[in-house]
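Hey everyone, long-time lurker, first post.

I ran two proteins through the pipeline my lab uses and got sequence/structure pairs for each. Pasting them in order. The first:
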Amino acid sequence: MASRQGGPDTDGVSTDSRGVSLTNAPTTPAIDRRDAASVPSRDPTAYAQTDHFRRRLRQTGRYLSLPLVAHAIRDGQLRFNPADGWRFATVVDGVRLVTVVGDAGTDSPVLVTGWTEVADRETAVASDRWSRLDVETITLRSSLADADDRQCPGAIRPRVVARPFEMGDHQVSTAGGDSFVECHDCGARFRSKRALVEKRCRR
């Protein structure tokens, strides 16, 4: 697991671009949250952030934000997944936000990782929160993630994502009908997530 980090402020509070914060938790005995019997806290301020989670907050095309994460923790559905532990999930205007939390080998509960996925495309496209480009980007990212090491030209071809989003070391986009995503910086083309994350950008 990535190391536990606080926010940039001296008082230990992390803020997003809208100034909403999740504070670092006080030191508490470590409990392995991968245990289905150890139900995690519903208090968003109890969680610190792993390095991995902080990187995901900054990545374009992930649509993660601290306000949405806090909402998922307070009010979302909570389920235990054997692969990665406890997950909070909430659907906002047709888009599902999933946040994975943990507490294995750390001094306090932590936000481990998170992602977005389209739960109801019609609702998402019709909402004021998400643009059609947002919905296309989330759908494309999900398709690549679900396929992982398999090429998925059929899932890429219907998507129109003109604004590059970050995946692996690349800023990728795709035009309608293309069976690949293309890096805006180095021009490399990819049909699978595995190829994206294994190849360094030559920018």
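...and the second, right after it:
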Amino acid sequence: MDEKPKGSLLEKLLEPKEVEPSASQRRFPTAYSVFSELKTSSNKLLKFVFSAVTLGAFDAVGGGNALPFSQVGAFLQNHLPSGFQTYFPFFGANFLYQTTLIALDCSLAAWSLYDKRWGKKRNLMSVSMTAPHAVCLDYTSAAIMAGRVNVLPLPRGDYTWRIGTYANTPLSGFAKWIDEPSRLIPGAIQGYDLAIYIAVGYVTAQAFISTYKYFRMKKLSTNNG
């Protein structure tokens, strides 16, 4: 009599159980798929907003002053080639804090929108949501410092600093463009417009991919059946 392989019981216990679809799921598969997607998307949105608001609160209470960003930035600036700082102004005394915030925006946006069902390339699209995440951070910080939710029009001091800070860098023109008045939101800036365009593009692209994959799988299952 063959001996039962070791670990087979453990593997069986750890093996995910197949959940039989309920009667309503079998009867209304499309409605269930849409509801499931909406639930997943809502969870992603909550994580996205919560992480941006938390980062905005950190910025509002003076997180940049609480940690030695200026000192570390000045150290890096003194030890990096001057040409590098001219073309890549991200690590100087005046830049390191903003660079850190953008890096955190990028990481948190990718984390909050990550979907284990998606491939690497599709999940990588979430990096484009860095700008909307940064705008949520920016608005939260402004609202907390103003002590009210309705902070529009934005105080000029909250955004005009970019023009002077990035004046002699390749980002000068982009900084000026971002700080121009919004064409979509009275009292906001074009940086907010950019975030809206990116968010709409991202949601549209993901919805298109999901719809395409759903009908493709449905067609394959029909052909196989």
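Reply from user beta_strand_b:
Welcome! Quick read of the second one: Residues 190-224 form the longest helix (35 residues). The two ends are 40 Å apart (CA to CA).
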